């Protein structure tokens, strides 16, 4: 068994991630009329000309995902992930995967063009690219 080097900043990063998740879960419940089953995880990057988001949606069909950019530069990612085993009758020992309606609101860090949103979906990751206004 080796000695692990302790990184005090990692505890702050973990705390920040937990607070961000709690805050996002709290905020996304208000605008929706549906019960939100889960809030998808994201990575967001900014380049000189665009905002790039990767959204983790494994097991979700592409046609069940909706993306919209509101006037206040808030991006909404909504949809539904269906449980393929919902009709199975029997004892469920472990059920950790989330199914049902999902919603995520992301405040973009820059003004963006609504008509210049490009999205692709591959291997459970939704990639969104939005051109920034200069």
From TrEMBL:
SHSP domain location: 33-134
InterPro entries to which the protein is assigned, alphabetical: A-crystallin/Hsp20_dom, HSP20-like_chaperone, Small_HSP
Protein name: SHSP domain-containing protein
Upper taxonomic lineage: unclassified sequences, metagenomes, ecological metagenomes
């Amino acid at each position: 068994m080796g000695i692990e080097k302790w990184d005090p900043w990692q505890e702050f990063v973990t705390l920040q991630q937990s607070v961000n998740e709690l805050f996002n879960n709290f905020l996304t419940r208000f605008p929706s009329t549906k019960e939100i089953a889960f809030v998808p995880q994201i990575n967001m990057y900014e380049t000189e000309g665009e905002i790039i988001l990767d959204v983790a949606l494994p097991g979700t069909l592409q046609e069940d995902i909706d993306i919209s950019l509101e006037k206040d530069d808030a991006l909404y990612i909504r949809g539904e992930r269906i449980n393929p085993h919902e009709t199975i009758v029997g004892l469920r020992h472990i059920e950790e995967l989330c199914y049902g309606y999902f919603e995520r609101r992301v405040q973009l860090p820059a003004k963006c063009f609504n008509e210049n949103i490009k999205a692709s979906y591959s291997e459970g990751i939704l990639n969104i690219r939005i051109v920034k206004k200069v």
